[in-house]
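Section 4.2 – Deliverable D4.2 (structural model, holo form)

The reporting period included a commitment to supply a predicted holo structure for the target in complex with zinc ion. Inputs used:
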Amino acid sequence: MSAFIERQRRYPDLLAYPGWDDLMHSQLAWGFDCGPGWLPLIDIALATLNWGSQHAPTATIHVRQVKEKFGRLTIYADLSNVPPPVRDGILSILSHLADLSTYTCEQCGQAGALRSTGGWWQTLCDACETAWQTADEPLSQFRIRLGREF
Ligand SMILES: [Zn+2]
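Output (structure tokens):
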């Protein structure tokens, strides 16, 4: 079972997506578009959003996209009818998780650093950067190879 499907079963409301007929609204049809090294950070984000759902009964919270963007973990979520204090708390935690992702290797989860290599921003550890620089394949293939069917 993929890491995404496993979490979709744990948080069916958060990770529900409309389906193929509404891909412009949700990018979750592709799962998590980042490396497996950030799974612990994603889990904190999902737990935070789930906490928000439980503490704001009138709220509707849906994750729209989880991806790497300029080397950072980027999570887009709809936070409808979420009271401002809860909303602010959630957004603050998601922002801190994005900051922490720039110190966490996206591929293996070890201590990493935000790097610009060949025009791509990525957060990698030294070993994964070496593997990436010596890989004779495009970034997407590199991710799939290192990601182990993430
Ligand atoms: Zn690494």
